[in-house]
């Protein structure tokens, strides 16, 4: 049977398609398509990317996706090194008693001592395994930067407000993260992002993401990321440069625009990107230089453009986007698993004076 790379190559040529056209139509870089056809793993940032691209490319060519993934897995197994026990020459039987017995005795002593030392060290040093008798509650100040920390029951977050600091106390660390605030106790589940109002003014003040918790031991604490909404909104986004906003007729794209909001004026807006899985991510705010970073699960990235932002996303399903404009929050549904995208999120205007904040997919 042909390999998955040969099947992809032959099917593409059978359909009369070149790699440039395929790359444009499914938004996967040409070098990744060549890597799939040549079965070259080295061009991909990781195996997850290769599998995602293989799935998308197979669907596009109307191939049996599950079969293609099976062929890939078979090739990976075949290329794995042969276990040493299958190729090692057997030793004479008379050597076993003389060699094994002393080794077993020595290893037994070493193992026992190592386990005792490791257990003691883990209990004393590992922050994820904390005895309840040694937990000392701590206080942390929430500022404009993202705050990430393992918190334990009784720890406190100090949130600045116009009327002084608001004290938030960790209420629950078992099965979900509970935070006691003046407005009540708010809960956030594992791998969930939530916005909470801590001062009762109906406007969200904090964005919380839980990346790790225990369902059996509350003393292990909870790994959380906290972002202050007031801090995000105030950094960099003050005014919209209306003279630089293009007319709708000047914006060219073969894909339909997704309208986020429409009004008779343009507002400053904030983009929040919460990473559900690892992802290569690049953004270009207004006329600034593009910035590229590799984000992992649980991290949060924020941007505050005046007029617009361009995004490059290596795996669009790995990122959850929210837009905050005029105190309202809008969730964006962009792309699918393994889909490489380039998107513009920006204000455009009509001749009748209306402004629209839109998402525009680019080639």
Brief account:
The chain has 363 residues and is α+β, with helices and mostly antiparallel strands. The protein has eight helices and 19 strands.
Quantity of strands, as a count: 19
Give me the number of helical elements. Answer: 8
Rounded to the nearest angstrom, the distance between the terminal CA atoms is 35 Å
Share of helix, binned: 25-40%
Structural class: alpha+beta
3D shape: flat
**Low-confidence spans:** 82-90, 123-134, 230-238
| H and E order | HHHHHHHEEEEEEEEEHEEEEEEEEEE
Determine the mean pLDDT.
78
- Strand adjacency order, main sheet: 10-19-18-15-12-13
Approximate strand percentage: 25-35%
Gyration radius, to the nearest Å?
Answer: 27 Å
| Biggest sheet record | 6 strands, antiparallel
The assembly state of the depicted protein chains is single chain
SSE topology sketch:
Blueprint: H1 4-14, H2 19-26, H3 30-37, H4 47-60, H5 65-79, H6 84-87, H7 95-125, E1 139-141, E2 147-151, E3 156-161, E4 164-172, E5 177-181, E6 184-188, E7 193-196, E8 206-212, E9 222-228, H8 229-234, E10 258-263, E11 269-275, E12 279-285, E13 291-295, E14 300-303, E15 308-313, E16 319-325, E17 328-332, E18 341-349, E19 355-362
Parallel strand pairs: 1-3
Antiparallel strand pairs: 2-9, 3-4, 4-5, 5-6, 7-8, 8-9, 10-19, 11-14, 11-16, 12-13, 12-15, 15-18, 16-17, 18-19
Helix pairs in contact: 4-5
């Amino acid at each position: 049977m042909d390999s998955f790379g040969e099947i992809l190559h032959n099917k593409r040529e059978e359909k009369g398609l070149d790699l440039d056209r395929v790359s444009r139509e499914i938004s996967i870089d040409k070098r990744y398509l060549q890597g799939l056809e040549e079965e070259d793993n080295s061009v991909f940032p990781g195996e997850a990317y290769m599998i995602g691209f293989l799935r998308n490319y197979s669907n596009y060519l109307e191939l049996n996706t599950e079969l293609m993934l099976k062929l890939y897995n078979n090739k990976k197994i075949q290329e794995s090194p042969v276990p040493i026990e299958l190729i090692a020459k057997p030793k004479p039987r008379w050597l076993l008693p003389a060699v094994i017995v002393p080794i077993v005795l020595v290893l037994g002593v070493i193992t026992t001592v190592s386990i005792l030392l490791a257990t003691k060290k883990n209990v004393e040093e590992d922050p994820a395994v904390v005895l309840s008798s040694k937990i000392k509650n701590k206080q942390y100040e929430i500022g404009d930067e993202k705050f990430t920390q393992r918190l334990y029951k009784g720890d406190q977050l100090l949130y600045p407000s116009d009327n002084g600091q608001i004290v938030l106390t960790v209420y629950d660390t078992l099965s979900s993260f509970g935070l006691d605030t003046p407005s009540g106790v708010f809960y956030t589940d594992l791998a969930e992002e939530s916005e909470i109002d801590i001062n009762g003014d109906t406007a969200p003040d904090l964005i919380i993401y839980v990346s790790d918790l225990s369902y059996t031991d509350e003393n292990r604490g909870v790994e959380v990321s906290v972002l202050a909404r007031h801090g995000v909104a105030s950094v960099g986004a003050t005014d919209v440069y209306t003279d630089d906003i293009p007319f709708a007729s000047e914006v060219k794209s073969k894909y339909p625009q997704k309208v986020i909001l429409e009004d008779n004026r343009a507002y400053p807006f904030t983009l929040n990107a919460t990473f559900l899985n690892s992802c290569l991510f690049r953004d270009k705010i207004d006329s600034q230089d593009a910035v590229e970073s590799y984000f992992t699960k649980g991290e949060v990235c924020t941007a505050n453009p005046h007029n617009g932002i361009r995004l490059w996303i290596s795996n669009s399903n790995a990122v959850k986007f929210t837009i905050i404009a005029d105190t309202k929050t809008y969730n964006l549904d962009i792309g699918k698993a393994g889909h490489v995208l380039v998107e513009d999120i920006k204000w455009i205007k009509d001749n009748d004076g209306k402004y629209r904040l839109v998402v525009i997919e680019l080639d």
